Automatic annotation (TrEMBL), chain A:
Residue stretches making up the ABC transporter domain: 2-236
Keywords carried by this UniProt record: ATP-binding, Cell membrane, Ion transport, Iron, Iron transport, Membrane, Nucleotide-binding, Transport
Subcellular location field: Cell membrane
Organism: Oceanobacillus caeni
InterPro entries (UniProt xref): AAA+_ATPase, ABC_transporter-like_ATP-bd, P-loop_NTPase, Siderophore_ABC-ATPase
Lineage of source species: Bacteria, Bacillati, Bacillota, Bacilli, Bacillales
Name used for this protein in its record: Iron ABC transporter ATP-binding protein
Membrane topology summary: Peripheral membrane protein
Gene Ontology molecular function: ATP binding
Automatic annotation (TrEMBL), chain B:
Spans through the membrane: 6-26, 38-61, 67-89, 101-122, 128-146, 177-196, 223-249, 261-283, 289-310
InterPro entries in alphabetical order: ABC_BtuC-like, ABC_transptr_permease_BtuC
Native source species: Oceanobacillus caeni
Pfam families (UniProt xref): FecCD
Family: Belongs to the binding-protein-dependent transport system permease family. FecCD subfamily.
Localization in the cell: Cell membrane
Organism classification: Bacteria, Bacillati, Bacillota, Bacilli, Bacillales
Name of the protein described by the UniProt record: Iron ABC transporter permease
Membrane topology classification: Multi-pass membrane protein
Keyword hit for Ribosomal protein: no
Record PANTHER family: FERRIC ENTEROBACTIN TRANSPORT SYSTEM PERMEASE PROTEIN (PTHR30472), PETROBACTIN IMPORT SYSTEM PERMEASE PROTEIN YCLO (PTHR30472:SF19)
Keywords, ordered alphabetically: Cell membrane, Membrane, Transmembrane, Transmembrane helix, Transport
Keyword Membrane annotated: yes
Length: 251, 316
């Protein structure tokens, strides 16, 4: 369980996250939605200790993340940021093997390589595992990064806009994998996402952020609501029910 | 050819050049010439190794291939500190007379200064490479000008001492510091070995490093101390050789096409030794001291640097 209590963060005295309190249940996909500048990325970066909080408490399974040992935390929670431009000569397999660092400190055992193979298989990257990252398409590269996160084998997985710049096929492929991770391996996934239809179709819970505050949180079907979305994005969004899925029409 | 093989070949070439340097045209009073050449060779190897090593680590910490400790003006800083010491204590003081004391004080100051510099430059949430480069250039120029300024102010006799302390070069190695440097480098390497495992992960960038459980600030600060000491050692022995680090580490990356630091570190050290020993051999035997090694290195380095800057626009 991830627990946030009165979390506060300001850049240059300008608050970006104000008094956010949240509880995220195990074994769910929780999407963070909201307009640009709402503080979604900042919030998720704080939960993964990439940036410091100014105030409040963030605990994972009851333990404060800023007190926990770095290496222990790396086995519990992993994050994939939206800009992961790595300018190294790195093959897919090598990238994925980095995911085992918290366990092996760079000296991978047979068991570690087994996990690496599993992760590569899970993301269906076997054919291209010896290719350099720069030779891959955006979608393939994103899958390689997710494979690394899978190899890291953490209970909690945080993703900051994993669908950025991906086409529909790559996007659905990734969302389906995430769903599978939750349903089959009972991971807990937190994801920042802009496409509210992906959020509506694939997540269990949604947190709507605006101006650094939580505007609404709850089950996906409760947040994908005409009134809520109007307040959130300041625009009229029509919601249609298609095959039991709530689809937003805003074009 | 794989990177392992390339590393071995570079090692062999470096060794061959070292032997050539020592044994070429060995005539006359061998008992005098041989130790003299040997100590010079050791100084060159230490310098080359220290520059390559520190530049590689620095580039990994800062995640770029353009900023080196020299581009940021760390070697100019060393010269400035020397001048400041003379300015404050005078050339007759124990600090100046005993070169090893002077050496150690300078190193301590260097470490403090680099940590301060790091705090200012890299602690921000975002750092733009061009901005850092600009700051580095300005700082380097500032350190140089300030050194000149202080030298103008001091007594001409003191100035002579300052000149001697500062104008070390490959042709005028400070041999009295060689053994102290060897010990120092040994200690630094022992200290460094604890952090070696983090280098590959650090090269993925700060976010990934934290994600994978690296105690980021702790490790980076300590690696920076290692860099500062190595730069001090290199500068004290043979003076600033600005572009050598930038040149050899980048060429090594291009050559090896791997991210593994073991091979990048070894390769760049060997390459650096090849460049310095080979270059010095050419300067001594072919140009008969008509030019200096740093002129050649700075020329080649400058051209390569512009190429890198233009290339940085595209992805690596």
């Amino acid at each position: 369980m991830v627990d946030l209590k009165n979390v506060f963060k300001a850049y240059n005295n300008k608050p970006v996250i104000e008094d956010v309190s949240l509880t995220i249940d195990k074994g769910t996909i929780t999407s963070f939605i909201g307009p640009n500048g709402a503080g979604k990325s900042t919030l998720i970066s704080m939960i993964s200790r990439l940036i410091a909080k100014d105030n409040g408490d963030i605990t994972i399974d009851g333990k404060d993340i800023f007190q926990a040992k770095n290496n222990d935390l790396a086995k519990k929670i992993s994050i994939l940021k939206q800009s992961n431009a790595i300018n190294l000569k790195l093959t897919v397999r090598e990238l994925v093997s980095f995911g085992r660092f918290p366990y092996s400190q760079g000296k991978l055992t047979k068991e570690d390589w087994g996990k690496v193979d599993e992760a590569i298989e899970y993301m269906e990257l076997q054919d291209m595992q010896d290719k350099f990252l720069e030779e891959l398409s955006g979608g393939q590269r994103q899958r390689a990064h997710i494979a690394m996160v899978i190899a890291q084998d953490t209970e909690y997985i945080l993703l900051d806009e994993p669908l950025n710049n991906l086409d529909m096929r790559a996007s659905t492929q990734i969302m389906k994998t995430l769903r599978k991770l939750v349903d089959e391996m009972s991971k807990t996934i937190l994801i920042v996402i802009h496409d509210i239809n992906f959020a509506s179709c694939y997540s269990d819970n949604i947190v709507a952020l605006k101006d650094g505050k939580v505007m609404k949180q709850g089950r996906a079907c409760d947040v994908i609501d005409k009134c809520v979305l109007k307040d959130l994005y300041d625009m009229d969004i029509d919601i249609k029910e298609i095959d039991n899925r709530r689809i937003c029409v805003y074009y | 050819m794989g990177y392992k093989k390339k590393t071995i070949i570079l090692g062999i070439v470096a060794l061959a050049l070292a032997c050539l340097y020592i044994f070429y045209d060995l005539r006359g009073n061998i008992g005098y010439i041989l130790p003299k050449r040997a100590i010079k060779l050791i100084a060159i190897i230490i310098t080359g190794g220290a520059i390559a090593f520190s530049t590689t680590i620095f580039m990994t910490i800062t995640n770029n291939r353009i900023l080196t400790p020299s581009v940021l003006g760390l070697d100019s800083l060393y010269l400035l500190l020397q001048t400041v010491i003379i300015f404050i204590f005078g050339s007759n003081s124990i600090v100046m007379m005993e070169s090893s004391i002077n050496y150690l004080i300078s190193i301590v100051l260097m470490v403090l200064f680099s940590l301060l510099l790091y705090q200012f430059l890299f602690k921000g949430e975002k750092n733009n490479i061009y901005f850092l480069l600009l700051i580095g250039m300005i700082l380097g120029t500032f350190f140089n000008s300030f050194t000149d300024f202080m030298q103008v102010l001091i007594d001409p006799n003191e100035f002579m001492v300052a000149q001697d302390a500062m104008f070390a070069s490959i042709n005028n190695v400070h041999t009295d510091l060689v053994w102290l440097s060897v010990v120092l480098i040994g200690l630094v390497l022992i200290y460094f070995s604890r952090f070696y495992k983090y280098l590959d992960v650090l090269s993925l960038g700060k976010d990934q490093a934290v994600n994978l459980g690296v105690p980021y600030d702790y490790v980076v600060k300590r690696l920076l101390i290692v860099v500062a000491i190595l730069i001090s050692v290199a500068t004290a022995l043979t003076g600033p050789i600005t572009f050598l680090g930038l040149l050899v580490v980048n060429v090594t990356y291009e050559m090896m096409k791997t991210f593994r630091h073991l091979y990048i570190l070894l390769g760049s050290i060997f390459l650096s030794i090849i460049a310095l020993v080979g270059g010095q051999f050419i300067v001594e035997k072919i140009f008969t001291f008509n030019t200096t090694l740093s002129v050649i290195i700075n020329f080649v380095g400058g051209v390569y640097f512009i190429y890198l800057l233009l290339k940085e626009n595209r992805s690596w």
